[in-house]
Design goal:
heterodimer; A: 192 residues; mainly beta; seven-stranded antiparallel β-sheet; five-stranded antiparallel β-sheet; 12 strands; 45% strand; globular; B: 428 residues; five-stranded mixed β-sheet; 3 helices
């Protein structure tokens, strides 16, 4: 996975994600640009790039509990109205109310580590006020500049009683990428 | 019985071969399939092993070897198939160019079904109407280069110095041709002895098939405009000699060729403003064929000969595929497509269809029931396929389906019959 994060201008956010396994989805590659507004899938078996509606970010991605939006959107302060619900010695608990009227969630409850300032857990509350999904971070890596990179997390759907697990093998930051790397051209290549 | 034994032996061999391949850097799939058509009592079955090897030769060059070993009880195009064999260059010979050279599958079009701009590869014949069968293509020797002019637009070139036609078994070609001629002659197609001679067009390095396609964006819509100069991939008659015998039978000698055609194409995919989650995909193609007619000479038993000319292609015509797909909040997938013409219809035969696909995966994604329907807007005939994919574990898929056809006996869709199918696929 390659991603570019521009907190100054979220429209510049983009990522490319390629499956390495299981075999049936090997080399299926997703490109998300403009902060998830434009999503493309390259499926080697069909030899073409398929556009996915940016507004269908709620759809589950490749049989996982993660939606396109979970991969693409991040949890930007611009997308939510945040208020402090509670705190203890280790964590802040924030209530996040989505600004997007088309969202599936009435609110998100985010548990943030007080010391390192990253989210440890997000509970997704549906429009009827019921707990729907839980995203939990299991392992993080602290960078030299103090930023946090998530290495392992699980995403549980409480309604379906299913769980997906994501693990980053290794993480590199500030790598130099070719011009126009986040493009439809790149995702069709045999190697990223 | 002997056939079934041979079939089982091939299955066993395929699994033996593939078990040794798992360790190598080769991907592939093993597939076995069977279908039974009620009415005709036809049992069709087969199995295949596909192997793909795609190593990098350097940071700029890659090799693709994609082959299939296939056994099928009826109409097998070839037991050993090269699906693709090519050298791929990435950002070479200049930073803005990618290319492929060799035996290629070239896929044009944004549409999910029967794109009318996807005319480069011929196809093998299949009685099956499964997605796998309809996606099969015969590779063409070609150079395919894409020049990325700027971040928004690219220009793709195809140069094809060799002509390759669709594969249709002789008996199928004779059957179709006989059914076309019978109403003209007022004879029973089953009493016709048909012989077909085919002549391929002169295609070589100096007179290639070629195409050009500009891909980019207009506003937020992904767009492509293309032009293809080539030939029809199925043969059409230009001279037919019919001899009517005194016993009511007839013998037919048909000479066929591949008319030249130019195809102007336009492709669009994007979102429908105001309808969240809906992606539309639309392909339009304007076919400009060379003038093509069939000179029919009919020799009667009394020794007289009459001559008729039937225009096969005398004007340009449109084909299109326009659809939209949507995934609902409960993960049900809807795909509705309007088709003007299928790959098997050209010229005056082009007619309208509606195609619908519904999928509803189970929460754990092990089951995916589906419904595929195609309805002819011309004669009301239709095929409905209801079935399910089942994934017992990663990389295994079992597909079970039942298709029902209806409509006038002469319609293409109703001729498919009612069929029960079972496919098992393992990807490694």
């Amino acid at each position: 996975m390659y991603s570019i994060d521009d907190s100054e201008n979220p429209q510049n956010r983009a990522f490319i994600f390629r499956f390495l396994s299981p075999a049936e989805v090997k080399n299926v590659t997703m490109l998300s640009t403009k902060d998830g507004d434009e999503i493309y899938l390259f499926m080697p078996a069909f030899k073409k790039v398929r556009r996915i509606a940016g507004s269908s970010k709620k759809e589950k991605f490749a049989g996982t509990n993660f939606s396109f939006g979970d991969f693409s959107g991040g949890y930007s302060k611009d997308d939510y109205e945040a208020s402090l619900a509670s705190e203890d010695d280790q964590n802040y608990v924030l209530d996040l109310k989505p600004n997007d009227p088309d969202t599936d969630y009435s609110k998100l409850i985010m548990t943030v580590d007080k010391e390192k300032f990253y989210f440890k857990k997000i509970e997704f509350i549906d429009l009827n006020g019921n707990h729907w999904k839980v995203l939990e971070v299991q392992e993080v890596q602290e960078e030299e500049d103090g930023t946090i990179t998530i290495l392992k997390m699980t995403f549980q759907d409480l309604k379906d009683n299913t769980r997906s697990y994501m693990e980053m093998g290794s993480v590199e930051k500030d790598i130099e990428l070719p011009k126009n790397f986040f493009s439809v051209r790149t995702i069709q290549r045999p190697e990223l | 019985m002997k056939q079934v034994q041979r079939f089982l032996l091939i299955i066993a061999l395929l699994f033996l071969v593939t078990s040794g391949i798992f360790a190598a850097d080769i991907n592939g799939e093993v597939k076995t399939f069977g279908s039974y058509t009620f009415g005709t009592g036809n049992f069709e079955y087969g199995s295949s092993l596909q192997l793909t090897y795609n190593p990098s030769l350097s940071s700029e060059y890659y090799l693709m070897v994609d082959t299939t070993l296939k056994y099928q009880s009826d109409d097998n195009y070839s037991p050993i198939r090269i699906n693709e064999l090519y050298l791929q260059g990435v950002a070479t010979p200049s930073e803005d160019i990618d290319f492929k050279l060799g035996y290629l599958h070239l896929t044009w079009g944004a549409s999910d079904a029967f794109s009318p701009v996807d005319n480069l590869n011929p196809r093998p014949f299949s009685q099956s109407i499964s997605g796998d069968a309809l996606d099969e293509k015969i590779p063409v020797l070609a150079l395919n280069a894409e020049w990325y002019m700027n971040p928004t637009w690219s220009m793709e070139f195809v140069y094809q110095p060799e002509f390759c036609s669709n594969f249709t078994p002789d008996y199928v070609e004779q059957l179709f041709f006989g059914n076309q001629l019978a109403p003209l002659l007022g004879v029973n197609p089953q009493t016709m002895q048909i012989q077909i001679e085919k002549e391929s067009p002169d295609v070589d390095f100096a007179q290639p098939i070629w195409g050009i396609r500009a891909r980019g964006k207009v506003g937020s819509i992904d767009t492509a405009f293309s032009f293809l100069k080539g030939y029809y991939l199925s043969a059409f008659p230009y001279q037919t000699d019919i001899t009517l015998n005194t016993d009511g039978s007839s013998s037919v000698l048909a000479k066929m060729g591949y008319p030249e055609k130019s195809v102007l194409g336009a492709e669009f995919q994007g979102e429908i403003p105001g309808i969240a989650g809906v992606t539309f995909r639309a392909d339009f193609a304007l076919f400009i064929p060379e003038q093509w007619s069939n000179q029919i000479a009919t020799h009667s038993p009394d020794g007289t000969t009459s001559f008729t000319t039937v225009d096969v292609f005398d004007e340009m015509y449109w084909k299109a595929s326009v659809g939209a797909d949507y995934t609902a909040e409960d993960n049900t997938y809807y795909n509705l497509i309007y088709l003007l013409g299928t790959p098997y219809e050209e010229g005056k035969d082009v007619s309208s269809y509606l195609f619908l696909r519904l999928e509803k995966p189970s929460p754990d994604n092990k089951w995916k029931p589906f419904l595929n329907s195609i309805l002819s807007l011309e004669d009301g005939s239709m095929i409905n396929i209801i079935g399910t994919d089942y994934k017992p574990k990663d990389n295994w898929t079992v597909t079970f389906s039942y298709s029902v056809s209806s409509g006038p006996a002469t319609s293409m869709l109703s001729m498919a019959g009612d069929t029960l199918s079972l496919n098992v696929k393992h990807v490694f």
